[in-house]
Write a structure and sequence with these properties.
With 498 residues, the protein is an alpha/beta fold. 35% of the residues lie in helices and 14% in strands. The protein contains 19 helices and 15 strands. A 5-stranded parallel sheet has the order 2-3-4-1-5, sandwiched between helices. Strands 11-15-14-13 form a 4-stranded antiparallel sheet, with no helix packed on it. Helix 5 packs parallel to helix 6, helix 6 packs parallel to helix 8 and helix 10 crosses helix 11. It is globular.
């Protein structure tokens, strides 16, 4: 029987080690991070282990050598010095106003002031933060370690509210700017989040961070590699294979198709989604575990607000400047979608510095359609036809046969190009591109549940007619000239927000 205890939802390194949970050893990279630099920033998708990474760093800088027994860092670190640590977690609140952010910051400052003292002359948040760092350094004789988890949570929740986002940004800029001002008293600082806001935004007062989000040296610091699966989960892989009635290699191939494929640099190896992978081993069943935890509200609101072409997203090309930061004034949702983990790097053109993006794996590809498409139409997630139904034709014997592969594989096999002419200001939601999806010979019809039949071709000159193929999606038939035998029916679709 499988005795592995999987750390699903476990974000505290000390409890993970004391309770004998599985730990994929990342401590060699932790040591490298702590000894080769001082100020860092890391963005990774949600549930990729950012909080556990910060907790591991906290235990290391607390000098808790016993927690690292048997790990790589045990042989690397010789001193195990204890440092004062300021750990700020912004993931525990909902930021509907500036007062919510002020309450969280004030609560942490009060706790730190109880440890290191307060100064009545420090009357605003940045001054109090700077004073705490200074007093902690003088009181302990050791420079301060600062760990900030989900630094961008307030800003992400206000992506659709420009006024609130400006107010929150104006609060965070000077607060984070303290890290640069107090350099003499700081030993180490790491900020993590899902996204990176542009230099003209929250980081304008903090330009001394080293961004390791697209750094080949730290690609494996969060997530799980195939090598780590073979090293730490070999017996679990065999048990999963037996449960699924597959060979070990077939099981590994399926794991790769479903959960691998995250590339954070142009040449990096694929990284598995740790949350979905560990859930699969724990339950011995494949599933959409990452998506089932919920779709971020900020992403839904952003996609609806920008009216982004959902199908074009699977074939996006962009450059590093766009991927690396989010401009609060920009209406381009690609940086948020990429940094949130719904797209990843699929190719790179070094001559022009262009990255090709796509869905990382089947879980994201199918989950995106199942969980996000319903926000744009009246289709419920349970009834999303793009996931559960196939397009069919009627043969002369009235037996249905598959004409197109079931989506979302359709997105890969039949990539669509966006219409450059239309959509702005038309009231559309996220619009499917106005170009031919597929051509059907005359006299054939589409059918499946709510998808109506195409009519027989009419004589030339008749106006095009709109046909509802399912809720929220319309198909238009455009006829070409020429003999009836040469004509083809071109399906052109546009997705309208209901």
């Amino acid at each position: 029987m499988n005795q592995t205890i999987y750390p699903i939802g476990i974000q505290n390194f000390e409890s993970l080690r004391k309770d004998s949970y599985l730990y994929i050893d990342k401590t060699a990279l932790v040591y490298q991070l702590a000894t080769t630099g001082r100020y860092y920033f890391l963005s990774r998708p949600r549930r990729f282990g950012k909080s556990l990474l910060l907790s591991t760093l906290e235990a290391y800088f607390q000098g808790k050598k016993e927690l690292f027994e048997g790990l790589a860092i045990e042989k690397l670190e010789k001193e195990w010095t204890e440092y004062p640590i300021l750990h700020l977690d912004l993931n525990i609140a909902r930021y509907a106003s500036t007062s919510d952010l002020e309450d969280i910051l004030n609560r942490n400052l009060v706790a730190w002031e109880e440890l290191y003292g307060a100064d009545p002359a420090e009357r605003n948040l940045p001054l109090r933060f700077a004073g705490i760092i200074d007093r902690a350094y003088r009181k302990t004789g050791q420079r301060v370690v600062i760990l900030i988890d989900e630094y961008d949570k307030p800003l992400l929740q206000a992506l659709h509210d420009e006024e609130l986002q400006n107010q929150l940004r104006n609060m965070l800029k000077p607060f984070y700017g303290v890290l640069k001002t107090m350099d003499r008293a700081i030993r180490f600082a790491l900020l993590t989040g899902v996204t990176k806001f542009g230099k003209v935004s929250v980081f304008s007062d903090l330009n001394n961070l080293m961004d390791i989000s697209m750094d080949n040296r730290y690609v494996k610091i969060c997530g799980i590699t195939e090598e780590e699966i073979r090293m730490y989960l070999r017996e679990d892989l065999r048990t999963l294979a037996d449960t699924q009635d597959m060979s070990d290699e077939e099981t590994l191939k399926k794991l790769k198709e479903w959960y691998d494929g995250y590339h954070f640099t142009a040449k990096s190896e694929g990284i598995y989604n740790p949350f979905s992978l560990l859930n699969t081993f724990a339950k011995m069943e494949f599933g959409d575990y990452w998506f089932e935890t919920g779709t971020p509200t900020y992403l839904v609101e952003l996609l609806k607000h920008t009216r982004y072409d959902l199908y074009e997203m699977a074939n996006t090309e962009t450059d590093a400047d766009v991927l690396n930061s989010i401009d609060a004034a920009s209406k381009n949702p690609i940086p948020v979608i990429y940094q949130s983990g719904y797209l990843t790097i699929k190719g790179y053109e070094p001559r022009f510095g262009i990255y090709k993006l796509g869905f990382p794996n089947l879980e994201v590809e199918e989950g995106f359609v199942k969980y996000l498409l319903p926000f744009y139409t009246s289709i419920s997630a349970a009834k999303t036809p793009l996931r559960d139904r196939t397009f069919c034709t009627r043969s002369g014997k009235r037996k249905p046969r598959r004409l197109l592969p079931p989506p979302p594989k359709l997105l890969r096999r039949y990539p669509l190009r966006g219409d450059r002419r239309a959509k702005a200001g038309t009231g559309h939601g996220a619009a499917l591109p106005e170009c031919a999806v597929h051509r059907f010979p005359p006299c054939r019809s589409l059918y499946q549940g709510g998808i109506p039949h195409l009519e027989w071709p009419h004589r030339l000159g008749l106006a095009d007619r709109s046909l509802h193929i399912y809720n929220g999606v319309q198909a238009q038939r455009h006829r070409r000239g020429g003999l009836a035998a040469d004509r083809r029916e071109a399906i052109r679709a546009s997705l309208r927000q209901r």
